[in-house]
Amino acid sequence: MEPILPASRMKFDDVAWDRSDAIYAAWKKKLFNKDVFRKIGDFIVKHRRGPPDELFSPQKGAFNLIFRMKFRDGGSAIIRFPIPGISVFAEEKVKREVSVMRFIERHTSIRVPHVLHYGMTEESLAGLGPFIVMEYIENDADMGDALNTPSLSVEERCVLDPDIDEDRLRSVYSDMADILLQFSRKSFDQIGSITNNEEGDFDDEWVASHRPLTINMNELVQLADFPAHLLPQTTFKTASAYFLALAEMNMTHLSIQRNDAIDSAEDCRRKYIARCLFRKLARENRLCSYDNGPFKLVCDDFRPTNVLANSEYGYKVVGAIDWEFAYTAPAEFAYSPPAWLLLEQEIEKRETESIKRGIMSEDDCLSQRMRESWQTGDFWVCYAARRSWAFDMLYWAKIDRRFFGEGDLEDRFQLLTEEERNGIDEFVHRKMAEKEERRLRE
């Protein structure tokens, strides 16, 4: 069925984005002097130990900046700092990632960097903020390189190489599938970020005891000027409660983002109605099938470029990095195919092998559930709930008619509560006034 309305992605707030860039630029100025570099090098040596050889220039990732120290014994270690202005919840992010990496080390065969030391702002070097000192996993490529069209530059979006060798493609798919299966195997009784008793080296009881920290939450504060205190602050005992929290968050996003949120009064009305209807589905518990779990580990940032490899050995996996946005989530999230690639066939092969070897049960399988998620449209529900700026495009194209059938925008308006219908004109008027204020400032 054709969507009622075409819709595009909501734009980032350019004012908030500029503010984010300014914070990063001011922080970056602290880095580039010899004294800071020397302190950083000495700090890495203190926690890794051994005769140092070379401190490399810093490298910037999407959320972090790293310094790598090579040692004379051939090994390396890095110190990684969340980037101010980009990583909004820096201390929380560091704590949650350390916990997840320790869990992965103990409960899977996935190689992750071993954490040597981590600290908060009070232990910071030269005011650079919280950090993690960890081992460096030697690599010369990642799985993105293995799949990408060779002619594309580093700055261009990755596109699957149409001439890729089939054996390499199957190998990459298989290795990625294995990581997904291992990561999602354990179940938890709540939705949130996991931890254990960090003081007890032998404590292996892991629980979701903190709120789920997501990429979307980080970006809402960074790029929409979303007040941090209005984000979820607790764990969740049911999937329906979490879906409702995400639906409320998407509505609050539209209400609060002052710049670049709407194109016109009609656009604002469409966005308001879409969010009200998605919230209605959440309130009626129509968005999830596994309300009481199992809750599975997912990582918002799991993608080929975060899986390290060596090209000279056929791009075999040597490790996986960047686990800061990993948390336990509704099973629907884990059962959705990865947005960057459909892996059901290779996952099914891995599942069969693992069941034969006795290292997983049929209850842990993902392939059939991923196929069902794609066929039913649950994939789009989960993606829209987790990605605020893509919400409108996904809602009207993939979600609305599935739940509400034929009709037009007026039909959809009548499905709103009386309070929502009565409030729409005032909402649109306020958003249009904010849009005019922006125009006058420019």
UniProtKB/TrEMBL annotation:
Every Aminoglycoside phosphotransferase domain range: 72-331
Pfam entry (one): APH
Protein name: Aminoglycoside phosphotransferase domain-containing protein
Organism, as annotated: Talaromyces rugulosus
PANTHER family hit by this protein: AMINOGLYCOSIDE PHOSPHOTRANSFERASE DOMAIN-CONTAINING PROTEIN, AMINOGLYCOSIDE PHOSPHOTRANSFERASE-RELATED-RELATED
Gene3D superfamilies linked: 3.90.1200.10, Phosphorylase Kinase, domain 1
Lineage: superkingdom: Eukaryota
